[in-house]
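Here's what a typical entry looks like (Ribokinase):
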Amino acid sequence: MTVWCFGSINIDHFYALPHLPVPGETLAATTVRAELGGKGANQSVAAARAGARVRHLGAVGPDGARALAGLAGYGVLCEGVQQVETPTGHAVIMVDPLGENAIIIDAGANRAIALAPVLAALEHAALGDILLLQNETAFQVEVARAAMGLGMEVIYSAAPFEVEAVRAVLPFVNTLVVNAVEAAQLLAALNTPFEDLPVETVVVTRGAEGASWHARGTPDICVPALPTQVVDTTGAGDCFTGVLAAALSMDASPEDAMHFAAAAAAMQVSRPGTAAAMPTRAEIEALINERR
């Protein structure tokens, strides 16, 4: 089974700061670096390093060679990545000594992607393949609808969170992944109880409190977060979602997949960076065995 990720590709510019700035404040960075990022790329890398076969569908600009090389270097298949005239997306990420962050994103090529090549690529998907998508590209609804029509399992990471974007995509989603704050905002906006959301499964991530799996007709699954020394929380949700998709694509049970994803996220936040911080399958398994 293949994980197809339709999602953003960015170059992340990291600035380590003594604290996150307040309005009007100028701070000197203690360190600066740039690396591959974007929610889509992060999830593709997380899934690939966790052992899945991953195909990325996205777009880069004329300056995107480094980003593509980064994806390919992590084992992601990139034949479905378009090159457009708009510059590659980028993010400015400020990180404080406790690992908390503030992020500014310019979508760039991610919003200039052409729909037809994405739909043509999906025609090669097999029944039961997984599609991962997020809110950092254009055409989420069209791509999710096409994937569901092809018999794919659609996992939607509703971030960055926008109520109307979620409302539009939900009819074409099998599994919705949100954090606890986003879940509360969604329920309030739709004025509906949790069990009446128009989706088969909802996964809620809760940071240090772990994560939960809610599927119709089955008992809820709650997994704890593994204790860890937090260095950088950037990309933690992407790690969890990508590894969850990888585990499900390799026929793990929902409970095992949730534990696997929680262990991966614990490792990821203990390291600096986004895509570069994603753990391998062997590292995740070793941590799980160590904590048993």
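The CA atoms of residues 28 and 191 lie 45 Å apart.

More examples are in the samples folder.
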